UniProtKB/TrEMBL annotation:
Residues 135-179 are annotated as: Disordered. Residues 143-170 have a biased composition (Low complexity). Residues 3-90 form the Myb/SANT-like DNA-binding domain. It comes from Rhizophagus irregularis. This is Myb/SANT-like DNA-binding domain-containing protein. Pfam families: Myb_DNA-bind_4. Gene3D superfamilies: Homeodomain-like. InterPro entries: Myb_DNA-bind_4 (IPR044822).
Length: 179
């Protein structure tokens, strides 16, 4: 088991954060991604880490952050030294997949379904106009939030108009797959 210096951990975190979009766009095989991070750490620190060690170390850092969250909320009685050291940095969840239009539409629909079940009302499916309005509103909120970074997405002016017969997600999916 490799002993990690603070400079190595710093490089690991910085690389994983700045290359988050790349990480999530690779699909299932991320071996080359982790090997490239290992190469950078090895170059800067004259070490001989491999991609697997980098992947495991990062997973352990996320696990330590989650353990700290459990400690703070009272669900656990112990805390991690590394969880404490890197807690503030991991609070922004930079390693998670960035939210896109499909995620926002799904959130809106899930919220509406849950609300209608709780109130006993049957809610009609939102219209295209309502969904687009909500998307614009959520994009404004995201752009005003300094802690959330977004990957570039297809702009409204580039995407073809949605016909009344198509659902918003189908129209967007087609415009994204063409590019």
């Amino acid at each position: 088991m490799a002993e990690w210096a603070d400079t190595q951990i710093r490089t690991l975190i910085d690389e994983r954060r700045t290359r988050n979009d790349e990480f999530h766009n690779l699909g299932r095989n991320r071996k080359i991604f982790w090997n490239s991070i290992a190469d950078k750490i090895n170059q800067e620190n004259r070490t001989s880490l491999n991609g697997y060690q980098c992947k495991e170390k990062f997973s352990n850092l996320v696990r330590d952050y989650n353990a700290m969250c459990d400690f703070i909320s009272g669900r656990k009685s112990s805390r991690s030294r590394l969880g404490v050291q890197y807690f503030d940095e991991f609070c922004i969840h930079f390693w998670e997949r960035p939210e896109d239009e499909f995620d926002r539409v799904r959130s809106i629909n899930t919220f509406n379904r849950r609300r209608s079940r709780e109130s006993g009302n049957i809610m009609p499916v939102p219209s295209t106009r309502e969904v687009e309005c909500e998307l614009r509103s959520s994009e404004r909120r995201l752009s005003q939030s300094p802690s959330i970074s977004r990957s570039p997405s297809v702009s409204r002016s580039q995407s073809p108009p949605i016909s009344r017969r198509q659902s918003p997600s189908v129209g967007r999916r087609r415009s994204l797959s063409i590019r």
